[in-house]
Fold each of these.
Amino acid sequence: MDHDRGAPLGRADLHMHTTASDGFYSVQQVLDHIARLGTLDAVAITDHDTLDASLWAYANRARYPFDIIPGVEVSSAEGHVLALWITQPVPRGLSLAETAAAVHELGGLAVLAHPFELLISPAASLRYLHKPAVLLQAGVDALEVHNASTPTPGNNWLARRIAATLSLAVTGGSDAHTLGGIGAGITRFPGRSAADLRAALLAGETSAEGKAWPITDYLRHLHGSTRRKLSAFSATNTRLSRQTRL
C-alpha cells in the first residue's frame, strides 16, 4: 500500500527466537544486540510455544530504546501463528481458526507465519494455495510475506500474492535464531511506536521487505537443529530401552 512520502516509516522485526525455544542467544543478548544495531523501532520475541523470554523482554521494555511487543509463535495444527500483543499462552495443536480466535480472545493479533513453507505444514500450505479464502474464514489478521529464513523457493512470493488477492495485511520478519539474522526481514509502517504498528496492521497499511539470512546463520541453525534432533532421538531410544528392560 502507498504511504505518504513525507510521513516517517517505522521498522519492526516481528519474528525472532531466543534460547527459551530454539534460538542460540538469551533474550537479554538479543535485545542488547538490537539496541546496538539502532535500526529497529519495534520488535517481538516469538519463541515457539513459550512466552518466558517475551514476557521478560516486555517487563524490561523501559531499558531499551525501541518498543517491545509481547508474543509467541504458536504451533497450530495448520501452520505456525505469530500471536502478537498477548501475555498469556495459547494452546498448541488447535486449528488455524481456533488459534486465531484464542489470540483475539487475549486481545492480540494473529499472523500466519511462512504460510507456504512446505517443511512446516505441507497439507495446510497446499490448502491455502488452492483455497486462499479459508485464511479469511479462519480470521487471521495478517500474513507474513517476507520470512528471511525460509528455504522453500517461492514461499515469500506466493505469500505476497495471496495477501494481495485477499487484501490481507502483511508483515516481514527475520525468524532469527542468531544475532546475525535479526533485521533481515522487517515490517514497515507509518509511525514509530508499537501502537502505530498495531493500527497500521488493522488498517492494512504495512509493507514487508528484507533479504535472506547470511549463509553462516543457515549453517549454524542447521547444525544446531541437527544436534537437537539427534539428542531427542537418543533420549527417546534410551527411554524405550529402559522400558523394555522393565
Amino acid sequence: MRATKQRSAIVDALDSARGFRSAQQLHDELKRAGASVGLTTVYRTLQAMAESGRVDALRRDDGETIYRRCGSDEHHHHLVCRDCGTSVELANDEVEAWAEGAARRHGFTQVTHTAELYGFCRDCSSSRSS
C-alpha cells in the first residue's frame, strides 16, 4: 500500500481512537478534524490494513465491520462496547481449550476460530440506566 497523506491521516485517526471504529465513524472524525479524505479511500485503506494484519477487523451483529489498531500480534479475543466502541483485549485459555476440545470431539483438525464479546462498557451502562 503506497503511503499518501490521506492514508497517513487514517492511520493517525486509528492510533488515537479509544476502541473499534467503523469506516463511516473514522470518515466523520477525519472530516471534523479538517482532513480531506473520501469515504471510499477510508474503506479501501481499512480493508488493505485488515488483510495485511495491521488492524483487527470485527463484524458486529448488525453486519457492519469495525476496525482497530491492535496492541498484540498474538491470537486473542475482544470485549467490545456496542455503544462507544471501547474494547478490551482478552487472552483466554478457556476459549482456546473449548475450541480445541470441540474440534477434537468432532474429528476436526487445523481449526481456527474467532470469539468476540459485545456488551456495554461501564460508562455507557451508567448513561443507559440514567
Amino acid sequence: MNDMLAGEISSVAEFLAHALEMEVESAERYRELADNMEVHNNPQVATLFRRLAVEGDAHVEQVTRRCASIELPNIAPWAFKWTSPDGPESPAMEDLHYLMSRRQALELALHNEVRGLAFYIQVADRSLDAEVRQLAGEMAREEHAHVAMLENWLRREVDNELASPGDLDPPNMPE
C-alpha cells in the first residue's frame, strides 16, 4: 500500500474537512471526465463516469451529514495531508485517454478507490486522537465496500475491443 498520508490528522474537524474535500473533488473529476468522453464520442465510458460521479455525490452527502454539527477548518489546497497533488480518490487527467474502454475506466476508478481506502486506513492507524481513529476506521470500511463494488463491476465487464469507439477525428500531423 502506498503511503497516502503526509502528516498526522489530529482532530475530527480536520479529518472531516479532508474527507469532504476528497469526496467532492472525486465526484467533480468524474463529471469532468464524463464531459470529456462525450466530447470525444465515447458515450459508454461517459455514462460510466457519470454513474461514478453519482456514487461520489452519495459519499459527499454521507460526509456532509457527519459534518452537520462541526465547524470545519478552512484548509488551503496545498495544505491537505495527502501525498498526491489531488485528493487520493481523484483520477489524474493524464490517466485518461479519449478512446479508453469501459474496462480501462473501471480499472482507473478502482485504482483511485483503493488510494482513498489506503488514506483512511493510514489515518485510522496513525492518528493520536481516538475519535479520529474510530471515524477513519468506519470510513475505511465504507471505502472497502466501494472497492468491492468496483471489483464486482470489473469482473462482470466484458471488454469487447471491437465495440470501443472509433476515432472519428484522428490527430493529423502535417509531414
Amino acid sequence: MWNQRWATGFAGRSSARAKLMVIGLTVAGGASSAPYNPQHLSAVQVGQVAEICQTVMGFEPSKPLVDNLWPGSTDPESSTNNYRGCIASLSSSLKRVPTVWAETQAQDDCRARGLKPGSSELGLCELRAVEATSSRDALENQSLVVTPFSEISATTYSPSDSETKRRQRSACAEIGLVPIQGAFENCVNDLNAVLLTESMSALYRNP
C-alpha cells in the first residue's frame, strides 16, 4: 500500500525531531510567532515540511523577508523568503499526495482487470475508483520519514542547476511522491518557482 512508508513515522526519530522543530521553528523575524503553516497541516506535518526545507533544500528561516509581488509565487502571503516559499510549496504538494496515490492505485487495479490503456473502460474504471477511495483526511494520521540532506549526499552545497534540481527532486520524494507521477514534476516546478520569486518580484516592483 502507498502509505506503508509512513506507518511507523510517529514512533520514529523523524517524528520526534519534527515535533521539536514545531516548538523551535518560528516565522522569520518573529520569535513568538507560530510556525508558518499556510495549508493548515497538522503540527507534526508542518514540522517535517520545515525540516525538509532546511535540511534538503538548504533554506534558512532567518533570511529577511521581501515583498511578494510575483503572481507566480507559491507563497500566498505578501512577504516571503525562500524558506517560507518552500513550506508553502511543499505543503500544497503534500495535500495532494492522497489523491495522487489513489489515482495510481486505481490505475493498477483497473489494469489488473485486463482493461486496456487508452480505452474508455479503463478511464471510467479509474475515475470511479478514485472517487470511491479518495479522502481529504487521509494524511491526518500519517507522518513523513525525513532524511537529513547530509545523509542523502555528502556533496557541499552548490548553486548549480544540477545540484538545485537534485535537491528539489529529493524534497518531493521526501513527501511521498515518485518520479513517474505527474504530481512529482509539478512539485519540482513549484520548488523552482520558489527560487524565482525574489527576482521576479523585483521586476514587478520596477516595471
